[in-house]
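Entry type: protein chain
Record version: 2
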Amino acid sequence: MVQLPSLNKQIVNVTSLDDIEEEKKYWISKSPLERIEAIEINRRMIYGQDRATSRLQRFFETSELT
């Protein structure tokens, strides 16, 4: 995945949160690779390209006991 797809903000799809059957059928029809690619696109849209590695920080230090 090199380029993120453009987001069309003119299309709005309103559905009920209780009706998950149609969404479930849609994702079951996709291959596992397509599902993982969709997750990666969502992650990049929210956090940016390198956000996952840039936000990991070291917070433990070790010290020798005498």
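Comment: The first helix runs from residue 21 to 29.
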